[in-house]
Amino acid sequence: xxxxxxxxxxxxxxxxxxxxxxxxxxxxxxxxxxxxxxxxxxxxxxxxxxxxxxxxxxxxxxxxxxxxxxxxxxxxxxxxxxxxxxxxxxxxxxxxxxxxxxxxxxxxxxxxxxxxxxxxxxxxxxxxxxxxxxxxxxxxxxxxxxxxxxxxxxxxxxxxxxxxxxxxxxxxxxxxxxxxxxxxxxxxxxxxxxxxxxx
Amino acid sequence: xxxxxxxxxxxxxxxxxxxxxxxxxxxxxxxxxxxxxxxxxxxxxxxxxxxxxxxxxxxxxxxxxxxxxxxxxxxxxxxxxxxxxxxxxxxxxxxxxxxxxxxxxxxxxxxxxxxxxxxxxxxxxxxxxxxxxxxxxxxxxxxxxxxxxxxxxxxxxxxxxxxxxxxxxxxxxxxxxxxxxxxxxxxxxxxxxxxxxxxxxxxxxxxxxxxxxxxxxxxxxxxxxxxxxxxxxxxxxxxxxxxxxxxxxxxxxxxxxxxxxxxxxxxxxxxxxxxxxxxxxxxxxxxxxxxxxxxxxxxxxxxxxxxxxxxxxxxxxxxxxxxxxxxxxxxxxxxxxxxxxxxxxxxxxxxxxxxxxxxxxxxxxxxxxxxxxxxxxxxxxxxxxxxxxxxxxxxxxxxxxxxxxxxxxxxxxxxxxxxxxxxxxxxxxxxxxxxxxxxxxxxxxxxxxxxxxxxxxxxxxxxxxxxxxxxxxxxxxxxxxxxxxxxxxxxxxxxxxxxxxxxxxxxxxxxxxxxxxxxxxxxxxxxxxxxxxxxx
Lengths: 199, 536
Ligand code: SF4
Ligand code: SF4
Ligand code: SF4
Ligand code: SF4
Ligand code: FES
Known about the structure:
With about 200 residues, chain A is an alpha+beta fold. In chain A, about 25% of the residues lie in helices and about 10% in strands. In chain B, the strands form seven sheets. Chain B has a seven-stranded mixed β-sheet with strand order 15-14-22-21-20-16-17, sandwiched between helices. A five-stranded mixed β-sheet of chain B has the order 2-1-5-3-4, with helices on one face.
């Protein structure tokens, strides 16, 4: 490709006195620097989204006493959704396990206890006997959520689920459904809830 | 021979073959549902429509034969036929057929067991429209039971009639039919007559969609996760070629594998579902030994074998080598019988070798197509006979009864039993009974030493079927536990008796067998290939 030549007119007054712009920039920095200590400066994201004004005027938060509330699209711990009658929505199709790049979902299917209630819907005839996610291997890409045809698996806002053993980091169906109970209203951190299983 | 042009490729083919046959022989895909190479041509799915130059309408590739044209009417002066399955018109027809087939289809692929190997999925992707234009409600057709092994997801059926033709033409039982009209069409069985022929599992294989399913496989795995191992069925002496499909070292299903010399595309239900029994059988987890007071105790293979050798050597001194008897098995592979025979005749020096096999049952069945389920439930009677040079165990039994034989080595392998009739009484006369069998049975419990072994899914070898065809079976799962294969146990025994024996792999054992035995001459393990070999 041929080089393109651009002619720049440097003989304008504005360009001659470009130092003015530099000072403008420095002034802005100074303004913000001086603002620290004044009200309404920086808010922790938690408070900003809760619509609160900063009271302590710090950009940091006092974790773990104070919990950060992630953004709605945050990809944290998984949950298995249930329908209105508390039956798992998952149909054990293994789309999530197939899509998962970390190969950390293990599913074993069986005939569901509620199969007879849906004679015309083979989808509800199947459910997972075993559904396990090894969150140590999970890379929280969210592919499982995207692959799921039943909106059964979802990633939640929960980020603090470090475990003391590898076994406890494998989430089975009961745990994942419990996560659903805790997060279905989307207020896990706002309500100060905690995961109530063994770690 | 007619010269044709098929999708731009110039071919010279036999007259009388159909376009679809020619295409599949030459690796050209023409989508089709109702055509099956072993069933009559129904021409009802209309998926195989192709454009044939000079014909007024699109033609079905499955039913249009290749023909010669008179010289004056040759196309471009040289071609007898010019066929195109990818022309605009053909593609439009394929698209419409797909749309029709999917009109009332539930498209519940996520829970459908066929997903991943479903023609409707594949062709929808390759030839379909990709979206639904119809706004009408679908007519629900609930799932129903057709028989003990087969269920029908009625709404998924595309009415290709393969299953009906299978029952009519291969089984000859006429158990299935299509009832009703229009969108209420469905596959039915006759009142009070479920689908229960002994080949019923095959309808699930040939169903191009997920309508017919075996209850055994239903929900148990997604097909793309299955590891496939080709092998030979051990259920009877037919030696049907199969594909063992496993996941996480568990067998999920068994499917037939095409071998026109043996089983064509079919297997019987005994072979298809029989794996459960073998897989769940109670097994010997470690070599076992019985002491004087009859208590069983765990031991390890090395110790057990050392003790066996010591005992045999002392018996050999008191009596003669021929006081040691050997019973090979029609349920064991050629290699295992070969090693036992060698151990007997070469190493111990006894010619008291017999063949142990379950009686031939009388449930031999021949179906309309000629497919046969044999009454002889042993996979390797012929091979064992040729190798051991013995037809049965009668002589050995007699010699045990009259005290000529004091010690007996026995290969087990009968899938469901320990003792055969009368054996318990006869064997009680023995001073030493050594059994190589995986099954925890009355036989292995009364043996002085039972050395364990692997079941047929965990090992490799060859069987010689009733047509005298030698075929390979392969290891499909690794054994869960510390099992040692029969071939290794036998070789360890041989080494313990005679240090000059070198342990070799199954393939080499077979090659050696081929060198030493007239019947197997000219064969090698490698040459057996996928189809097996007859006597050269
Ligand atoms: S988030 Fe990604 S890595 Fe984690 S389970 Fe889902 S698909 Fe697998
Ligand atoms: S979570 Fe969704 S994608 Fe995974 S098995 Fe269940 S229904 Fe299928
Ligand atoms: S038959 Fe094929 S297209 Fe229909 S639901 Fe099953 S996998 Fe999907
Ligand atoms: S059940 Fe399957 S094989 Fe039988 S007609 Fe329907 S689609 Fe064809
Ligand atoms: S395959 Fe030709 S019409 Fe069905």
